[in-house]
Amino acid sequence: MRKSLLAVALAFAFPTAFAQSSVTLYGIVDVGVENLDIGNESATRLMSGISQGSRWGLRGTEVLGGGYSAIFTLESRFSIETGSMTNNDSLYWCRLAGSTAPAVCPGVTLVTPLPAALAPAVVGGMNAVNNALLQAVTTVNSSGALFDRQSWAGLVTPYGAIIAGRQYTPGYEILNKFNVLADMTSLQFGQAYTTPQIRANNALQYRAELKGFTLSLMYSFGGSEGNRSERATPPTDGDDFMGGNVQYVTSNWGVGAGYNRTNVVPYATQAAGTPEKKTGLETINVGGWVGFGNFKVYAQWMNRQNDNPILTPGDIQNLIVSTGGNLTAITNILGGLQLGPQDMDLMRGFAGPTDSDAYHLGASWTLGNHVLYGAYNYGKDSARSAWATEDASASHFGAAYFYNFSRRTALYAVAAFMKNSDQARVSLSSAGYTTGWTTGAGEDARAFQLGMRHAF
Predict the structure, then answer these.
(1) How many other C-beta atoms lie within 10 A of the C-beta of residue 236?
(2) Does the pLDDT value for residue 137 go beyond 70?
(3) What does the alpha-carbon distance between residue 373 and residue 414 come to, in Å, rounded to a whole number?
């Protein structure tokens, strides 16, 4: 049962002014045990956010009359095993998490030849920088924001709603809504082969919902996961975002399509003193589901294209050479880039372009309190760079079982498998955290998960 504690208190204190207002406290507490194998490394550990990310939030509505309402949502995250709002549960990037050994990223080599005396140090620096980038983009809420998951306010009108703040992007909404497990567990479709821009900072959304139809149009004035502020130097729209989706959902079937596009200012144009705005990651996804009583079938396709990554392999080599490997200088330069997970070649685990397609087929069967899920996903990236010399493909499949004690509390068990081919080294991430990459290209991953989820 949702607890509108603040709304009740306000109603007693000001019964007339707040008679049509409500503020709801809500949340999810999710915790379990995971056994994860990523090639040459494995771990058994207690994890928060396996089924859904642990969170708490405030949601408010005031009916203004005439078809108008004021609304807001403020939603925070936490890891139940540590209490932290920030986490990075990756097991491996280009070295084991927590290790001080030199990073070795599969596929990372010199882009242009260097003198023999200089080459080993530069290659070592390139691996270290790439490892640091992977660590940065897998850190959840690196800025430590209190309301990292969502923070927005809006006005509902008879002609649609206008919503302003940090919000889920239109493409990500379609990704979640039209796959059988949404964002739940290591079997979800949301993995390295589908990663879009998940949230947009400083965003305005127009949203209309009528008789099963939904239309969403969004524009963001910029900001990344690490740096939430808009880009301050020209081109000031170099980190802006735009997207949209359209959906139609009935009681027994639904379809939807989404589009996301990010602007970027590639590092090479900045280093040359002529910063230039270019199109970064573009995603298109189309999905649907159909129900047959207690049985539902889901399908989705997603295309991801990024011909202008913020950093390329050549940029990283030039960065090492031009700074003489100075750690402070490199850190300052990288810290000024509006870099996000969607700016990396995530299937291979290094900087570079993206050109991928992914497919999802899933089904669920509900029998009383029991729900059984099955899914098969496939992703392939055919982009090429100095490091991406082969395709990267992954087959991802498994099953999940949920037992619902009530509408609020469930136990679950999951078995998920990732079969990597060629240069792919995709690991298995879950709802509230990422797990990094496998220890080598073409090495497989496997996750067994057992946990409990409670909603309030």
Answers:
(1) 13
(2) yes
(3) 9
